[in-house]
Amino acid sequence: MKDLMIALQSGKTSLYEQIYLSIKRDIEDGKISFGEKLPSTRLLAANLNVSRFTVDLAYSQLVSEGYIQSRAGSGFFVCDLSNLYSGISGAKTSAEGEATGKAQKEAPPCSVRIDFSPFAVDSAQFPYNTWKKRNREVFDEITDILVAREAAGDHSLRETIANYLYHARGVHCTPEQILVGAGNEYLLLLLVQILGGGRSVVMENPTYLQAYHVLCRAGCQVRVGEMDEDGLCCGSLDRGPVDVVYVMPSHQFPVGAVMPFSRRQELLDWAKAAEGRYIIEDDHDSEFRYVGKPIPSLQSGDQDDRVIYFGTFSKSISPALRMSYMVLPRHLSERFYEQFDFYSSTVPTQQQLAVCRFMQSGDFERHLNRMRRVYKAKHDFLLKELKQRPWVKKVRGENAGLHLVVEVSCACTEEELLEAALQKGVRVYGMNSYRIGPVEQTEPVTLLLGFGGLSEKELSEGLAVLDGLLDAGS
Amino acid sequence: MKDLMIALQSGKTSLYEQIYLSIKRDIEDGKISFGEKLPSTRLLAANLNVSRFTVDLAYSQLVSEGYIQSRAGSGFFVCDLSNLYSGISGAKTSAEGEATGKAQKEAPPCSVRIDFSPFAVDSAQFPYNTWKKRNREVFDEITDILVAREAAGDHSLRETIANYLYHARGVHCTPEQILVGAGNEYLLLLLVQILGGGRSVVMENPTYLQAYHVLCRAGCQVRVGEMDEDGLCCGSLDRGPVDVVYVMPSHQFPVGAVMPFSRRQELLDWAKAAEGRYIIEDDHDSEFRYVGKPIPSLQSGDQDDRVIYFGTFSKSISPALRMSYMVLPRHLSERFYEQFDFYSSTVPTQQQLAVCRFMQSGDFERHLNRMRRVYKAKHDFLLKELKQRPWVKKVRGENAGLHLVVEVSCACTEEELLEAALQKGVRVYGMNSYRIGPVEQTEPVTLLLGFGGLSEKELSEGLAVLDGLLDAGS
Asked: How far is CA B453 from CA A145, A204, B171, B317, B431, in A?
């Protein structure tokens, strides 16, 4: 039996891939030759101090590519290489390219110590025990937990969401208008089908770029709307055919602006002025407002069934839930039930029922109240710290949400700054990553600093790294 | 304060809607007039013996439609009806239409005692304790449970699926080729985008009709392929432009046929003969085969990266999981990572990790082995019972899956038979519901009898009802 020399490195590619690549290379280089027996998976796992499963996977891959074969009861043997490439030409480079691609794309750089993601929530403060309790109740008390729910989502959950939306956001709707789905992107795909293909959509810029990509890929013509300090300019909407406007009036992402009442009214008037016009209101983080009264949703002022309201549990509970909902105007929800309810629900029954109980029991409201305090403390801390920085020119988007928008004085470009911070283990986000189309060179370097997932200590550490980069650079 | 007369009926529409409709009618009919105070939600809930939440919802709806208003601290009062219809013309009929539509579409008829659904699994035999244990472990042992996973799904889960697929189905793939998603329909939508719009797809007929609808809605040209007893005829594929063939070679749904080796090879040869041709292999229930050796997947014989393999946990675990996966050829998975990984994962992290542990621990295999025995017993029982029936002309699709296909002698049409059974509380499914396009009058009446979710006692009861209908009718 052949002894294998495999040196595993941490953090590059997965262990099984390293084992697979190492053995493959040895076979190709002739270091292990035709007919030789490989060590048993048990032995190799013990030698390399990895799980047997990892070795199994590497061997499976080698078998599937014809490098080795399994003989029942005797183990794994190297195949005759001479006919290896007959059926799988091209497979080699493609597999290698993929392994590399994966390391770049999937494995988070191990060196990121502090991530200012605007989408992270505070894991330390999550009410795990309550959440576990609700999940347990669902298991113990619900008899039909193995039955998939209606296409639009479990009816009791939709009733609960309708009630919550009415009280928290002034949204007027019946449960029948609500579609629960596995995230905003999925619901947008579905909405495009309900509206019918080829719609012209106007978006704010910068914006939530995932929605932009989804709309483009789903066959919409998407263009950027003219903006002023109050948000999207409605006058510009009449300059070309526009069917749908996608806005975030309560707290624009990423800029953080709040659309004033007059502009909302203009937008509603625009929608009402012609058949088939709609406004998509993405109300992504309105749960977290730290100053003044909550701003009612645009949908609450819609008398003409033109607003499609999007809400999500990604920030109010967790992005790992993958659970959002949209509220359709009545005629669109009828269209859904008539033409589209062949789509199965995309959210697991267990989770729909757990969220429903989490809301009905008051846990959700208690959690939101608590997190509002937690996030406000972080928000205030970060804001105070930023205001002491000489490199901070302007802070925008305060008073709500889980990130701040910071214009910085900086000798380098935004992309260079992000890269320099990353080299020091700090991931920050730049406004340019959220812009549609080419970036004007005159735009000031602007960072998005998410604080939801970071402690005060981590926020300070992250800022210290930026100090090092920007005090020198400015 | 006005006393309300509300008579609740069970099972028609939801309680809150009945309350809402009843009060609305009373206001419109003038039984309760402008300025009158409604009973408090607490009182009305107590009187009607419903939850306060239900009444809250009914009142919210009445408020949102302008029938009543809330005065802080004093309760709910009826509004002046004279200006009710100023801003919401049309809302009334649309709301009523919807309420009716909902009752028809959503509420399962309460009278269905026995449902022969081909998609139901055996809830009584589900390993709840093991499943709960794996969920608990995920909570207790995984620190980043609140972090959403990669677009394609958690990497350890994909490794585990790759390993399972290799051993169970002979599927050759790396974890990078696997995309985990919230059900086959979502993954099909994604696949159409990855392949590029406007593809011509050929499907078997009858087939899994949800896939047909999804492909049509996503902009594909879908047509029906010519069939013989071995399945899809490859000769007919050359008669028009075809990019993609959608087949279920291991156990065709709903017919239950197994595609023989020679036909598989023809299909693979067809795909290989021109650039851009693909085969979608929907391997929906191959876990449950009761006779002979498992049939390897079509993907296992694909040397040219032309097969896109679809698998699901809907039958092997539960349809309520909403969890499927597709295995892309390498160049398509590269395209996904390059152009489409802006899509977030559609499966909750908690569930991805629970399924991963369920598989890694051996629970999944034990569950499958057990369910294979359980379903085989039901399958054999139903088959034996059917063979004793004079009205059974032919049974097809035996030996695998969770349903049998039964040709019956019947004086009425298939649709009439389904309706007559439903009147007696038994839901059976007809082959015509799975056919694309118009149904030929010459087709024999053919039932799909799913047995997964029914006990032997229920199977007997259901068959007795069919006896009553068919012994008389034949």
From this structure: 13, 50, 29, 13, 19
Interface of A with B in 244-263 (CB under 8 A): none
Give me the helices (H) in B196-322, please: 209-217, 261-272
User: Based on the number of CB atoms within 10 Å of its own CB, is A364 exposed (0-12), middle (13-18) or buried (19 or more)?
Assistant: buried
Report whether B126 contacts A146 (CB < 8 A): yes
pTM for the model stands at 0.78
CA pair distance B46, B300, nearest whole angstrom? 63
pLDDT value at residue B355: 97
Q: Is the pLDDT of residue B93 over 60?
A: no
B156 part of contact set with chain A, CB < 8 Å: no
Chain A, window 374-393: residues with a beta carbon less than 8 angstroms from a chain B beta carbon: none
More confident residue, B25 or A390: A390
B65/B277: higher pLDDT: B277
Share of chain B above pLDDT 70, in %: 90
* Spatial separation of the C-alpha atoms in residues A133 and A115, rounded to whole Å: 30
Q: Which residues of B touch A318 (CB under 8 A)?
A: 146
Task: Reply yes or no: is the peptide bond before residue A108 cis, omega within 30 of 0.
Answer: no
Both structure tokens of B156: 């350890």
Q: Give B-chain residues touching A16 at CB under 8 angstroms.
A: 159
pLDDT at A291 (0 to 100): 82
Q: What is the CA radius of gyration of chain A?
A: 27
Q: Is B290 in the A-facing interface, judged by CB distances under 8 Å? A: no
Q: How far apart are CA A452 and CA A432, in angstroms?
A: 21
Partner-chain residue, chosen from B98, B106, B185, that has the shortest CB–CB distance to A150: B106
pLDDT value for A447: 97
Chain B from 406 to 465: CB within 8 A of any A CB: none
Convert B403-462 into a string of H (helix), E (strand) and C (coil): EEEEEECCCCCHHHHHHHHHHCCEECEEHHHHCCCCCCCCCCCEEEEECCCCCHHHHHHH
Is a pLDDT exceeding 60 seen at residue A97?
no
For the beta carbon of residue A63, count every other beta carbon within 10 angstroms: 16
3-state class (DSSP) for residue B132: helix
A81-85, A128-132, B290-294, B319-323: the lowest-pLDDT one: A81-85
Residue of A213 and A93 predicted with greater confidence: A213
ipTM for the predicted complex: 0.76
Nearest to A318 by CA among A293, A349, A350, A351: A351
Closest CA to A248 of A234, A233, A232, A270: A232
What is the model's pLDDT at position B82?
Answer: 53
Best residue in B195, B322, B364 to probe A by mutation, most A CBs within 10 Å?
Answer: B322
Report pLDDT for B270.
Answer: 95
Asked if the C-beta of B148 comes within 8 angstroms of chain A's C-beta atoms, the answer is yes
Question: Would you call B94 and A65 a contact, using CB atoms and an 8 Å cutoff?
Answer: no
pLDDT in tens, B197-241: 789 999 999 999 999 999 999 999 999 999 888 889 988 898 889
Nearest CB to B102 within list A167, A176, A213: A176
From the list B57, B60, B322, the residue facing A346 with the nearest CB is B322
Q: What value does the mean pLDDT take over residues B21-26?
A: 84
Residue B330, amino acid: R
Residue B443: band (very low, low, confident or very high) from pLDDT cuts 50, 70, 90: confident
The candidate with the shortest Cα–Cα distance to B263, out of B229, B287, B239, is B229
Distance CA A207, CA A251 (A): 11
Residue B10: pLDDT band (50, 70, 90) is low
Within 8 A of A214 by CB-CB distance, chain B residues are: 342-343
**Burial degree of B442 (CB within 10 A; 0-12, 13-18, 19+):** exposed
Burial track B15-46 (b if 16+ CB lie within 10 A, e otherwise): bbbbbbbbbbebbeeeebeeeeebbebeebbe
First to last CA, chain B: 63
